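Entry: Universal stress protein
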Amino acid sequence: MTDPIARGIVVAVDGSASSTAAVEWAARDAELHHVPLKVVHVVAPLTFVAEGWSAFPSEVYSQAQEDEAARILEQAHKVAVEAAAPDRASQVTSEVLHEPIVPGLVDLSKTAGMVVVGCRGEGGVAGALLGSVSSGLVHHAHCPVAVIHDEDPAPQPSQAPIVVGVDGSPTSELATGIAFDEASRRGVELVALHAWTDMGPLEFPRTNWAPIEWRNYKEQEAEVLAERLSGYRERYPDVAVRKVVVSDRPAPRLLEQAEDAQLVVVGSHGRGGFTGMLLGSVARAVVHSSMVPVIVARTPEHR
């Protein structure tokens, strides 16, 4: 099967701790996929709106901005090379772009296999769950977006599983393919979670109280999940799969599984999404709340 990330990985950097974590993760993932990695720092155009700033020597500020951009990019490039294998140095490139930050990165996503970004950048609001750049990308990118956190208090072991949400939607199909590929390359178990109803946990007053028809629904949904995974299991026979079928809202259950995982993969919007929706409630909840890396599967036709 063609690698979903075969076109290469772009990682956006701004000098923050979050972007450093993103560079390290992106370098390792690019190595796993044997694809090039581009490290990008975007310099937004100068804007002066306050009265009296028109006399400010903009060329001085511009030079300082360029010097800072060069410093950030050099440091990030070094981190990327150190995080990858020694023979991968030639596969790491770097570039400074001069344009509005989010539109510039969204434009890059048209030709990238995946864009990687830190959850919050330099100058982010204290306590914010997601920064403006990462939020803009998960809403508007033309390819999958990986959001990386830097404050995970307990890094997961290398053999921790990968979790994917499966609901049968087009972006869920893409997410499933990415998750299988990542699990295969990392040699880890894949946890495939399917929430067959959004009604919340169903509790009955005593064992076997539920009507037989209700139990049959769950059995049928388990079969549906198995069918949705069957093609991928044939393509990736080395991946051990643990199927989880629940009668609950998917986001809390995905976050529950993420506590012991190294990566979560979700579709940008699922079965309940309407045409034109940029980001579904499940993807939004997971990318905001998960402390492990999250890949949001996006495609141009589902922007």
